[in-house]
């Protein structure tokens, strides 16, 4: 969408006549059909995109390839969280603790979940998978340890008299 103004006395835009000094908002197709007769006042983007115009003087450069490269660069620009000094509390990436590549970490979590028998859907977030893994592991610990003994080997004194605890304390 573009906001345009006719260069000459009058131009038919969007099925109605617009005269010099009047502004009209037209689609890109309408603009392309009448671009020699109108001046662009404003380039309007529906999804809040911003436009950068680049002048390339070197005629040996393939403009379509350059456009794709620039779009790819802009798409990936600043996607990674900014990491600062570890002594600083600002901008420290708290979610990435094992790998620089979040996809690798997510895949590792999915494999770990699969080994535990957890069904992982493609749209599950990393935090959800971690939570399900923790729940499953605590459930497995309870199944393997039904007597209530703690994993660290400490005594869970239930008040019965034993050699180590003759008074049942």
Helix and strand topology:
Blueprint: E1 2-6, E2 10-13, E3 16-19, E4 24-26, H1 28-34, E5 38-43, H2 63-76, H3 102-115, H4 126-144
Antiparallel strand pairs: 1-4, 1-5, 2-3
Features:
about 170 residues, three-stranded antiparallel sheet, elongated, alpha+beta, two-stranded antiparallel ribbon
What is the C-alpha radius of gyration, as a whole number of Å? Answer: 33 Å
Instruction: Report how far apart the termini are.
Output: 82 Å
Strands side by side in the biggest sheet? 4-1-5
The secondary-structure class comes to alpha+beta
- Proportion of residues in helical segments: 25-40%
As residue ranges, the low-confidence spans are 81-99
Task: Give the topology string: H per helix, E per strand.
Answer: EEEEHEHHH
Major sheet, described briefly?
A: 3 strands, antiparallel
> What is the averaged pLDDT score?
76
Number of helices: 4
Percentage of residues in strands: 5-15%
